[in-house]
């Protein structure tokens, strides 16, 4: 899952709290793992407004695992941290090339 994130003013701290819950509880529970997480840097090739504050790539065993995670009542309790932290986000499922 590709995550492109644009933070609200002061939102990075709230997102870090959400990410802590994700790493410590929900990803292990549903078999996910963060493959990459990093801050956006210099945009080299993009349209105006296509820069992002952060990029995260998360591997889930399958789409069902992701769906089960976001439906988890405990996850629902912390997802507000994520929502309030962001002004814009893209979550794009991907399929590995063979």
Could you explain how this protein is built, in words?
This protein is α+β, with helices and mostly antiparallel strands. The protein has a single domain, classed as Alpha-Beta Plaits. It is 43% helix and 27% strand. The protein has helices spanning 11-30, 63-71, 73-85; strands spanning 2-7, 33-39, 54-59, 86-92. A 4-stranded antiparallel sheet has the order 2-3-1-4. The chain is globular, with a radius of gyration of 14 Å.
Unreliable stretches: none
Number of strands: 4
What is the architecture at the second tier of CATH? 2-Layer Sandwich
H/E series: EHEEHHE
State the end-to-end CA separation.
Answer: 17 Å
Strand order of the largest sheet: 2-3-1-4
Note the total helix count. Answer: 3
Strand content: 25-35%
What do we call the CATH topology?
A: Alpha-Beta Plaits
Largest sheet: 4 strands, antiparallel
Estimate percent helicity. Answer: 40-55%
The coarse overall form would be globular
Instruction: State the domain count.
Output: 1
- Can you identify the CATH class? Alpha Beta
In round numbers, the mean pLDDT is 96
Query: What Rg do the Cα atoms give?
Result: 14 Å
Task: Provide the structure class.
Answer: alpha+beta
How does the SSE layout of this entry go?
Blueprint lengths: L1 E6 L3 H20 L2 E7 L14 E6 L3 H9 L1 H13 E7 L6
Antiparallel strand pairs: 1-3, 1-4, 2-3
Helix pairs in contact: 1-2, 1-3
Summarize this structure briefly:
Helices cover about 45% and strands about 25% of the residues.
């Amino acid at each position: 899952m590709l995550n492109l994130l644009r933070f609200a003013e002061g939102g990075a701290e709230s997102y870090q709290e959400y990410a802590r819950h994700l790493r410590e509880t929900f990803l292990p529970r549903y078999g996910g793992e963060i493959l990459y997480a990093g801050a956006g840097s210099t945009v080299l090739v993009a349209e105006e407004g296509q820069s992002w504050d952060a990029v995260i790539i998360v591997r889930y065993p399958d789409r069902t695992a992701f769906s089960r995670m976001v439906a988890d009542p405990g996850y629902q309790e912390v997802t507000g941290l994520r929502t309030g932290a962001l002004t814009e986000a893209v979550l794009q499922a991907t399929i590995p090339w063979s």
